[in-house]
């Protein structure tokens, strides 16, 4: 029995005749293409590694923030950075510092790969902020050349690791290179290493499936050769264009190109061979069977290929480079494989069929699938309800879907960056290695006390935002307010000065009391001196009178002596003339007497002069005596005043002592509590050398921009961490409202901010690419089937299929295995499943359309019987090939492969086998609207 084969044999298509006639040149052409491209161009893995593109979305707010921050501070112009973590078995000592300093020195000597080093541990001012609380670990952030994911960034990571490897460290101290860029480089390396293993497993799956399907080693081998040549040609085209920098590549793009190529190429070979075997078993000869097979599946292969090409090209419309990098490479490899499937595979079939190499080894069993078709035609409603119930298992799981953003969870445990993360997390929180960078850019210099108040308000408000665990800024460089910067402390500091002065004041008060005692003694002495002076004045007055009497007597005695001298002058002269008077005793004695008489005159004259002075003293003594009483009174008044002053000051001092007794405790308690409610920096602080160093770290050279490092309480690469980004932005917006920085620009970048952009970008890209893919698939299905309803049913069932399959993947990975699906797995799986999932429905509907001449129900049963096994085999091969990606060292690749594989299994076994047929049976003729089914059936029957 033949089903639609005779007409093809009578009128074979010109393309099929041309391919059969030129089969050898076609085979040689494809072999030449595959060989030349793979000889001239390095392998796809090597090209992908050498021409890797950035995975950072340049238009994302977080990327703009990071780039602008680097530009404003004049430090870096890329988004690549790593963390170098030092870990010691004991506290990091001087040897560790010397090791660290040597590493920093070598890094600074490599400007080709290193752009900036945040050397906080090397500065005593900020060292404690970069060292762990237990003192056994420290870290430094290094900004590298090249955007994350690019070849230059990967080379920069290797350069840093080489420097560390070549720098000998002290015993017990180990250095690690970790961080986002290091993890990205390790992801690429791990993906490239596991690509060969994944490919071998996929090929093994294909071999087993082909052997199971065809029971022929020769058929399996030839089919595998066709798929291999197609894959080599497709990879060669992609590698060549990548090597010429026409297209960009990534680790995931390389993996997806290979696996899609293997799966799609195998599917199309199965389509062709399946239809050929069916024609042969229906009684057609080899040539007729060739034409029947080509005519029966060429439009399906073309439609399927265009669907996949178009859907994957829709990825080029997305904003995220991770998706965009897959669009053109995947579309190219599928385009090449479709071209080969429409030329090379038929050419190999044409030559092989001449020698009987592709003859079926077992009878094509249509009965089972016809029974299924008959059951669906008989009970379409219940079967549809059952399939929807099965789909609900996955669909109801979808609301619990939680995307994963922490790439470390999906990496092998032994990659260097993950080992470094583990070392860091033994001493720091996970957030310390993945901080956020907050920058505020104003239109004026902010290096003044008033703007510092606003900056601290921003830092404080951001710190109090939900999910934030630490904020480092110029006003809190170690994550807590600057010590002694609270207003209560500064007020207390004034009291501290008073307390320090109190001792000196009390000592002076004691001196005052001593002075009062000495003054009292002095007053007593002066009173005694006054009494003695009073007696002395009286004595002096009496003595002056007596001296005057004596003066008169002395004058009388002088006169008498003068008379005596005049009488004895001749005799006196003898005594002075005698030369030997000194030898004559009586002479010398007489002479001595006369000399004494001459002295009386001198004594009288002296007494006259002395009496003059004594008269003056006699006058002055009463006057001086009169001065003593007032002076003593003044001294007594001063003594009393001094005692009064001492008493008063003692009271004041006691009050001051009491008032300043606890004046410094408020500042002490504010410091201990790390309270940031009353921050203030006086102007003189800006002249402090240490503070100037801090300004260079946190403020731009012109002072118009200030940056802050924000660390999360939890893991920033999580849904909760992403939610914290919104809290930070709201807190900053509220804190600058109504301040001089109200019009300042706020920039926020970092791990969580980047993940938030990825989250929003993935949603946007999923909607954009999903809608574009659905529209494209609908148009292609409409062109192939000619029915709007059939096209809508195909698109709708594929949508249900991918929702259910993703739900099942969530159930397996998230709920059973405890690992969240990576955020990019679902969007990419949706795009791939939209494209691939429609293939099998398309093949079924196209075959249904061919069998319409037998009537709706009969044709439907025949279509199910004729295409059921082929479609199922193709779907299983595609599904198992994608599931082979689970052996990849990257769990992301494994999740992507299993999600697509589960979708294909659901689509093959549930949707294509039961759901779509049940809907078609329920709709009946309306399924083919707006086709004129009666005319079409009549034309086909004739």
From TrEMBL:
Question: Which residue range or ranges hold the SSD domain?
Answer: 223-351
The protein's location, in the record's own words, is: Cell membrane
Source superkingdom: Bacteria
What are the protein's UniProt keywords?
Cell membrane, Membrane, Transmembrane, Transmembrane helix
The protein in question is named Membrane transport protein mmpL8
Which InterPro entries does UniProt cross-reference here? MMPL_dom (IPR004869), MmpL_fam (IPR004707), Mycobact_MmpL (IPR050545), SSD (IPR000731)
Q: Which residues cross the membrane?
A: 18-40, 200-229, 249-273, 294-320, 326-351, 372-398, 766-784, 791-812, 824-846, 867-888, 900-928
The protein's matches in Pfam families, at most eight in alphabetical order, are given as: MMPL (PF03176)
Question: Has UniProt tagged this entry with the keyword Repeat?
Answer: no
GO cellular component term, pick one: plasma membrane
Q: How does it sit in the membrane?
A: Multi-pass membrane protein
Q: Which family does it belong to?
A: Belongs to the resistance-nodulation-cell division (RND) (TC 2.A.6) family. MmpL subfamily.
């Amino acid at each position: 029995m033949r089903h639609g084969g005779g007409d093809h044999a009578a009128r074979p298509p010109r393309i099929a005749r041309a391919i059969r006639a030129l089969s050898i040149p076609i085979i040689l052409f494809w072999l030449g293409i595959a060989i030349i491209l793979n000889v001239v161009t390095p392998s796809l893995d090597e090209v992908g590694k050498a021409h890797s593109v950035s995975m950072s979305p340049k238009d994302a707010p977080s990327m703009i923030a990071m780039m602008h921050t680097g530009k404003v501070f004049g430090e870096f112009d890329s988004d690549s950075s790593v963390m170098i973590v030092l870990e010691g078995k004991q506290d990091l000592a001087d040897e560790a510092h010397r090791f660290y300093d040597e590493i920093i020195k070598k890094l600074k000597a490599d400007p080709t790969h290193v752009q900036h080093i945040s050397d906080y541990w090397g500065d005593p001012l900020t060292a404690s902020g970069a060292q762990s609380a237990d003192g056994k670990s420290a870290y430094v952030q290094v900004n590298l050349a090249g955007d994350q994911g690019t070849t230059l960034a990967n080379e920069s990571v290797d350069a840093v690791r080489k420097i560390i490897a070549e720098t000998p460290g002290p015993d017990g101290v180990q250095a690690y290179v970790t961080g986002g860029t290091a993890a990205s480089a390790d992801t690429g390396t791990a993906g490239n290493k596991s690509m060969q293993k994944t490919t071998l497993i996929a090929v093994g799956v294909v071999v087993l499936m082909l052997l199971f399907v065809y029971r022929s080693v020769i058929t399996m081998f030839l089919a595998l050769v066709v798929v291999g040549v197609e894959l080599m040609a497709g990879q060669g085209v992609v590698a060549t264009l990548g090597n010429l920098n026409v297209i960009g590549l990534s680790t995931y793009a390389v993996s997806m190109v290979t696996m899609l190529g293997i799966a799609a190429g195998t599917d199309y070979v199965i389509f062709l061979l399946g239809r050929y075997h069916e024609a042969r078993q229906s009684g057609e000869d080899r040539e007729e069977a060739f034409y029947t097979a080509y005519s029966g599946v060429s439009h399906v292969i073309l439609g399927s290929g265009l669907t996949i090409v178009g859907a994957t090209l829709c990825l080029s419309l997305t904003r995220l480079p991770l998706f965009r990098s897959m669009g053109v490479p995947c579309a190219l490899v599928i385009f090449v494989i479709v071209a080969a499937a429409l030329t090379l595979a038929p050419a190999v079939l044409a030559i092989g069929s001449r020698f009987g190499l592709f003859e079926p080894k077992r009878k094509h069993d249509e009965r089972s699938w016809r029974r299924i078709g008959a059951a669906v035609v008989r009970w379409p409603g219940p079967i549809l309800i059952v399939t929807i119930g099965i789909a609900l298992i996955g669909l109801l799981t979808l609301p619990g879907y939680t995307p994963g953003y922490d790439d470390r969870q999906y990496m092998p445990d032994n990659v260097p960056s993950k080992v470094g993360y583990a070392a860091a997390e033994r001493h720091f929180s996970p957030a310390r290695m993945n901080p956020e960078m907050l920058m505020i850019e104003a239109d004026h210099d902010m290096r003044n006390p008033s703007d510092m108040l606003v900056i601290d308000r921003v830092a404080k408000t951001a710190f109090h935002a939900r999910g934030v665990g630490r904020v480092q800024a110029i006003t809190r460089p170690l994550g807590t307010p600057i010590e002694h910067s609270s207003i209560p402390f500064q007020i207390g500091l004034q009291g501290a000065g008073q307390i320090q002065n109190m001792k000196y004041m009390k000592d002076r008060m004691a001196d005052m009391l001593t002075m009062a005692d000495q003054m009292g003694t002095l007053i007593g002495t002066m009173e005694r001196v006054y009494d003695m002076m009073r007696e002395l004045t009286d004595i002096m007055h009496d003595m002056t009178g007596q001296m005057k009497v004596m003066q008169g007597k002395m004058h009388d005695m002088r006169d008498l002596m003068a008379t005596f001298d005049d009488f004895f002058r001749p005799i006196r002269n003898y005594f002075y003339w005698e030369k030997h008077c000194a030898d004559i005793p009586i002479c010398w004695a007489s002479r001595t007497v006369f000399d004494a008489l001459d002295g009386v005159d001198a004594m009288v004259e002296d007494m006259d002069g002395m009496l003059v002075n004594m008269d003056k003293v006699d006058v002055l003594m009463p006057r001086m005596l009169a001065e003593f009483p007032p002076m003593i009174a003044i001294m007594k008044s001063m003594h009393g005043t001094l005692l009064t002053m001492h008493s008063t000051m003692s009271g004041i001092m006691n009050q001051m002592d009491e008032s300043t007794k606890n004046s410094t405790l408020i500042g002490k308690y504010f410091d201990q509590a790390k309270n940031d409610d009353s921050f203030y920096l006086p102007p003189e602080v800006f002249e402090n050398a240490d503070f100037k160093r801090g300004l260079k770290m946190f403020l731009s050279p012109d002072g118009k921009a200030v940056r802050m490092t924000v660390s999360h309480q939890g893991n920033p690469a999580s849904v909760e961490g992403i939610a914290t980004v919104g809290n930070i932005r709201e807190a900053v917006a509220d804190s600058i409202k109504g301040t001089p920085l109200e019009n300042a620009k706020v920039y926020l970048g970092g791990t969580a901010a980047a993940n938030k952009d990825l989250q929003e970008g993935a949603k946007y890209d999923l909607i954009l690419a999903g809608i574009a893919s659905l529209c494209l698939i609908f148009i292609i299905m409409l062109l192939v089937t000619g029915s709007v309803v059939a096209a809508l049913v195909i698109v709708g069932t594929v949508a249900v299929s991918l929702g259910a399959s993703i739900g099942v993947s969530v159930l397996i990975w998230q709920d059973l295995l405890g690992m969240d699906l990576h955020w990019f797995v679902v969007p990419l799986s949706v795009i791939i499943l939209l494209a691939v999932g429609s293939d099998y429905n398309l093949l079924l509907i196209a075959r249904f359309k061919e069998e319409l001449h037998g009537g709706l129900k009969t044709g439907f049963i025949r279509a199910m019987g004729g295409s059921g096994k082929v479609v199922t085999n193709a779907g299983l091969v595609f599904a198992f090939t994608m599931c082979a990606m689970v052996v990849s060292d990257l769990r992301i690749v494994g999740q992507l492969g299993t999600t697509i594989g589960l979708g294909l299994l659901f689509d093959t076994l549930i949707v294509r086998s039961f759901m779509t047929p049940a809907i078609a049976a329920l709709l009946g003729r309306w399924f083919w609207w707006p086709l004129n089914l009666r005319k079409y059936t009549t034309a086909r029957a004739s």
